[in-house]
Write a structure and sequence with these properties.
With 136 residues, the protein is an alpha+beta fold. It has helices at residues 105-111, 117-135, and strands spanning 52-54, 59-66, 69-76, 91-93.
Length: 136
């Protein structure tokens, strides 16, 4: 056995000396395996979405029993009742997709259909031909 306290000691190149005191578990950053996606309810902001934030730090989640199961519900410390989500003046979004009316921009983005330029041009030509027929 090699004494590591001996002067001039260097560990083998492939085997580093293990650290006795590494960072505590609570200070280590968790590894994110996937992208966090918004989870709106219809087109409204969901307070249980992982991107939802309360600027007053009054938001917390509790488990309430409902029909024999535990359901997560969002609560507000300021009002002492259920969180109203995107309608609250202190609500914000982690990716800035919360609109002023309490709707999620990402949910509305999914509902809109993207039209190609050629299809849009064809529709414009149909409208113009229709207008010309009415005038003459």
């Amino acid at each position: 056995m090699i004494n590591p306290r001996r002067e001039g000691f260097s560990p083998p190149p492939n085997k580093p000396i293990p650290r006795e005191h590494s960072k505590p578990h609570h200070q280590q950053r968790p590894v994110q395996d996937k992208y966090i996606a918004p989870q709106p309810l219809g087109d409204k902001c969901n307070p249980l979405c992982p991107l939802f934030k309360c600027n007053r730090n009054a938001f917390f989640v509790i488990n309430k029993p409902f029909r024999g199961r535990a359901m997560k519900t969002a609560q507000c410390r300021l009002t002492g009742s259920d969180c109203i989500g995107g309608e609250c003046q202190y609500a914000s979004c982690g990716i800035n997709s919360l609109l002023p009316n309490g709707k999620c921009a990402k949910a509305l983005e999914k509902k809109t259909s993207h039209i190609s330029d050629e299809e849009l041009f064809r529709k414009m030509m149909q409208v113009e031909e229709y207008d010309i027929r009415d005038i003459s």
